[in-house]
Amino acid sequence: MQSLSSHPQTSSFPTRMASVSRTTGETDVQVTINLDGSGVCHAATGIPFLDHMLHQISSHGLIDLDVRATGDLHIDDHHTNEDVGITLGQALYKALGDKKGIVRFGNFLAPLDEALVQVALDFSGRPHLSYGLNIPTQRVGTYDTQLVREFFVALVNHSQMTLHIRQLDGINSHHIIEATFKAFARATQMAIAIDPRRVGVIPSSKGVL
To answer: Residue 172 in contact with residue 113, Cβ under 8 Å?
Structure first.
């Protein structure tokens, strides 16, 4: 497995990393994540378009990712796509730990040519997805565009985040989806950053997330 770089935010903070494996009768998925990375990514899911989107999360979120998956692609991409979302969500949840010191909220508006997508998220501990994409074609290459929503459903439920996705413009399916993943990456980068005024403190008036 490719070594993920260590790039802690300050020397006083341990690097937030996690590895999760998930094996079912349909798929075998391994994810390693470093939230304090530099955007190093290795993605080999057997679904080329999904690999491309995982690279967007890594590159624009400055998150190091190693994602390996094998699955029943002879049937279709659904199980592998969903289980990658589940395992990535579990790794993200594990790497965040008790969430002490994080900004918690993130929001980003990403343009990609004619497409414009907004993502707002909260590492709230309450899974919720509000999905507002209108993707005009059924496929991008061989990738079923219905699987975009399924990926985010899985990710949200297992990272326990609140996620809102809004499409403001766009007519090209590839552009709409890629703008979504880029906006998600930047909003995540914002939310997982350490607030120096909140070091060691859970960012909630309740004292727990």
So the answer is: yes
Residue 23 banded pLDDT, cuts 50, 70, 90: very high
Structure confidence at residue 13 (pLDDT): 64
* Residues whose CB is less than 8 angstroms from the CB of residue 197 and which lie 6 or more positions away in sequence, other chains included: none
What is the rounded average pLDDT of the residues 34-47? Answer: 98
Average pLDDT over residues 167-193: 98
Around Cβ 110, how many Cβ atoms within 10 Å? 21
Residues 6+ apart with CB under 8 A from 7: 15, 34, 36, 37, 38, 62
pLDDT at position 2: 47
Closest residue by Cα to residue 44 from 2, 93, 100, 90:
2
CB distance 119 to 152 below 8 Å: no
| Partners of 28 in beta bridges | 23, 70
Picking from 182, 203, 9, the residue whose alpha carbon sits closest to that of residue 104 is: 203
List the beta bridge partners of residue 119: 108, 165
pLDDT of 103 over the 60 cut: yes
Amino acid at site 31: V
Please choose, from the candidates 143, 208, 199, 132, the residue with its C-alpha nearest in 3D space to the C-alpha of residue 170.
132
pTM for this predicted structure = 0.93
What one-character DSSP code corresponds to residue 82?
H
